[in-house]
Design a protein that fits this description.
Largest sheet: none
Shape: globular
CATH superfamily of the largest domain: MFS general substrate transporter like domains
Oligomer: single chain
Number of helices: 17
Length: 506
């Protein structure tokens, strides 16, 4: 098929369509994170139930993003892409009219199906539509401008939640999605892999069951206790199913994940770095928003504005960073970028209660945003360095790795933070001046973590209780930030050993 340069009209329209759709997904992610503390309070949810609002979406996205890439290769990338946008719009409407935490979790899972069809399609369309010499720049522009739409998320989401209520954050997807469908149908060319054969449904089923088992175990284990047999069995079963998935893929003629793409050291290294980096990214966002609203007591609008520096840096620097990577190769940006991210995450370890935003949070968020802007384009381009016929699959694999990383971050870090919080809170409450009944009221809500509601009847002990809750949460928060910083550093180490520039041919 014909490939385009970014300077021609057709190229710009194709890029705009992918940016609009992806931006909608990114926007949804940022506004939902801002709304999580409010949703938790309004629907009376525990921390495990709130984890399912995030992970219900990520589970479907992670499990189905692989098969949707293959479906795009087989039946048409544009077709699967536009169907995904339609599912995303409809499920967003259902999320907005939800009346319970269970309904919202179910509709978020359906939203994940739409996202799984939509997100890899945007990258695979870019990968087959643009000339190789400008692909890094295009990916940088895609990530930057799609992030630009998402940059509205913290501010817009905070304002919507504060003044119109949390359901409004889902309704903003509808006009964006309709516009994305119109532009895609009119301007995006249809492409497919004519050599594609059958779809690996057994592999799809196994990876879904594997992720469901692992995530269910990680979320319910801390909530119901690891003595709960089903939680532990679920975790072990999920790990065993993942091992079975690998064996099935090795024997499958047309596997969900063609393992031959990992013969490339570049592709393998990029995906391992993605796993580490996006785990850290998801962990920081999830717990920092909770910290802002529940410990620092920022209103939703201010909490959203607090996240803006990172997003704006990613928005405006990703394009130039992609162009730089095209010129100097991916190696240096992929080593230096995660190091900068790591420094930013480690700096968040030193925040406390009543922290000054400009001293405790802003420097870390600036480093975090600058480092991510530097690494996103070369990381993505390296992960897609495969034969063109595997473009959709490679995009699906890399997106799946990123989503699985987020899935694991929310579940695993949630388990760690909850365990540390519960232990610390029990000690502080036991040693406090609160009455026995007041201590019981606080401990009975421990599953809500920092969202524990303190009755007015506590009188002067309200401050004692709030201090115990805040400091207990911060203990877990600091450990989580340290883990995230270590994983970002690890992604730099992985890049050092696996990412090398192409040798110039004379």
């Amino acid at each position: 098929m014909k490939q385009y340069d970014i300077d021609c009209l057709e190229g710009k329209l194709i890029l705009f369509a992918t940016i609009l759709a992806s931006g909608m997904a990114f926007l949804d992610g940022s506004v939902v994170n801002i709304a999580i503390p409010t949703i938790q309070s309004k629907l009376g949810a525990s921390i495990s139930e709130i984890q399912w609002i995030i992970n219900g979406y990520l589970l479907m996205l992670s499990a189905l993003i692989l098969v949707s890439g293959a479906l795009g290769d087989k039946f048409g990338r544009k077709k699967i892409f536009t169907y995904g946008i339609a599912v995303f719009i409809f499920s967003s409407f259902l999320c907005g009219i939800s009346h319970s935490i269970l309904q919202l979790a179910i509709f978020r899972a359906i939203q994940g199906i739409g996202g799984a069809m939509m997100v890899p399609g945007s990258l695979s369309i870019i990968n087959v539509s643009f000339e190789e010499k400008v692909r890094g720049k295009v990916i940088g522009l895609w990530s930057g401008f799609a992030g630009g739409v998402a940059a509205l998320g913290p501010f817009l989401g905070g304002a919507l939640v504060q003044y119109l209520g949390w359901p409004s954050i889902f309704f903003i997807n509808i006009p964006l999605g309709l516009l994305a469908i119109f532009i895609s149908l009119k301007f995006v060319p249809e492409t497919k892999n004519n050599e594609s054969t059958k779809i690996d449904w057994p592999g799809t089923f196994l990876i879904f069951i594997s992720l469901l088992g692992i995530i269910y175990g990680l979320i319910t284990g801390p909530d119901k206790g690891w003595g709960n047999g089903f939680a532990l069995q679920s975790l072990i079963g999920g790990i065993a199913t993942f091992i079975l998935f690998i064996f099935v893929e090795l024997r499958e003629k047309d596997p969900l994940v063609p393992l031959k793409i990992f013969k490339s050291k570049l592709v393998t290294g990029a995906n391992i770095a993605t796993l580490c980096l996006y785990f850290a990214l998801s962990g920081v966002i999830f717990f920092l928003v909770l910290n802002f609203q529940q410990v620092q007591h920022y209103p939703p609008l201010y909490a959203g504005m607090g996240m803006l520096p990172s997003i704006l840096l990613i928005t405006f620097l990703s394009g130039p960073a992609g162009s730089l990577a095209d010129k100097i190769g991916p190696r240096i940006p992929m080593i230096v970028g995660p190091l900068i991210v790591s420094l930013g995450m480690f700096s968040l370890v030193f925040s406390g209660t009543h922290a000054n935003y400009f001293i405790s949070f802003l420097p870390g968020l600036i480093l975090f945003g600058a480092g991510m802007a530097l690494v996103i384009a070369p990381l993505t381009k390296s992960a897609l360095a495969v034969e063109q016929k595997y473009s959709g699959t490679a995009s699906g694999v890399n997106n799946a790795v990123a989503r699985v990383a987020g899935l694991l971050a929310v579940a695993l870090l949630g388990a760690i933070v909850f365990s540390l919080f519960s232990g610390e809170l029990a000690q502080k409450v036991s040693a406090s001046t609160m009455s026995s009944s007041q201590k019981q009221i606080i401990m009975s809500q421990s599953k809500k973590m920092a969202a524990i509601e303190i009755p007015n009847s506590f009188g002067s002990n309200r401050i004692v209780a709030q201090t115990a809750i805040d400091t207990s949460f911060l203990k877990g928060f600091k450990v989580a930030m340290g883990i995230n910083g270590a994983l970002a550093f690890l992604s730099s180490v992985v890049a050092f050993f696996t990412i090398h520039n192409k040798k110039k041919t004379s």
